[in-house]
Amino acid sequence: MASTTVQSVATDSGIDEDKVEKAITSHIPTEFSEGFFADGVALVEGSTDRVVIDAVAAKLGHDLDHNGITVLSVEGKGGLRVARAILAALGIPTYVLADGDHGTSENKTYKDQTAAHESHKADTERLVLALPTTYEVKQGSLPYNFGDPTVVCSGFTIWKDDIEEELGGWSTFVAALSADGIDLASRSNKNLLAYRNAVIAAADDDIPEVLKTVVEAIIGVAHASGSEADHEVEEV
Fold it and tell me: Which residue of 21, 109, 202, 229 has the smallest Cβ count within 10 Å?
């Protein structure tokens, strides 16, 4: 049985032990526990990413559940670092999808957009430092620097901004979402059912290549799974 400890996860993720323990308490044994029984896990920052990735994969003929892959939503880049460190320590193949957030502060209302931009930059850079740079690059280039175009590797994707920015290049998706009364560019109404329905309604022939590449990379993590061992996080 594979196992790890709070201390080990803290060291690997670069996050304080108390924050690691809080993350574990918040997400285990709730939705995060699904990852312990999967052949592979895709970690995303929010529910919108989870719904879109799952729906796009299905549209491309890849049922993630059938492939033994669970998509887990964790809040923020700190959550990604903790979750990835836990799963890696337990030997569970994991794919990380993160927002680069280079232009995110311009798309939302912040009292101080400069401070928000610098905060996004710092969070993104901390995450990048926690990710191996030895993965095969499928789109973009490494090393990744804040503000670079989207990079898709065999082990992680970092959007230049966020998944909505990439979806903006899918004209039939944008039209389907707009028909449901949602303006993608504003990011003000993240109705998950509407997003899923828009993916289903959108045409196949104008899906952005980057989304196809991401789905293929996620499917690849399941092939790295070598066993069905039990996994456990020890709080010692």
Answer: 109
Domain count, the chain: 1
- Residue 123, classified by CB atoms within 10 Å of its CB into exposed (0-12), middle (13-18) or buried (19+), is buried
**How many Å apart are CA 82 and CA 35, to the nearest integer?**
13
Q: In this structure, which amino acid lies at residue 25? A: T
In a domain? residue 184:
yes
Q: How far apart are CA 93 and CA 195, in angstroms?
A: 27
Beta bridge partners of 41: 70, 94
Do 94 and 43 meet the contact criterion of CB atoms below 8 Å apart?
yes
Confidence grade of residue 233 (pLDDT, cut at 50, 70, 90): very low
Burial class (CB in 10 A: 0-12, 13-18, 19+), 204: exposed
pLDDT tier for residue 26 given thresholds of 50, 70 and 90: low
Range of the domain at 47: 2-223
> Minimal CA–CA distance to 44: which of 33, 32, 30, 36?
32
146 within a domain of the structure (yes/no)? yes
Residue 11 lies in a domain: yes
Torsion of CA 150, 223, 219, 230, to 10 degrees: -100
Instruction: Write down the pLDDT at residue 171.
Output: 97
Q: DSSP letter at 150?
A: P
| pLDDT 10s digits, 134-161 | 889 999 999 999 999 999 999 999 999 9
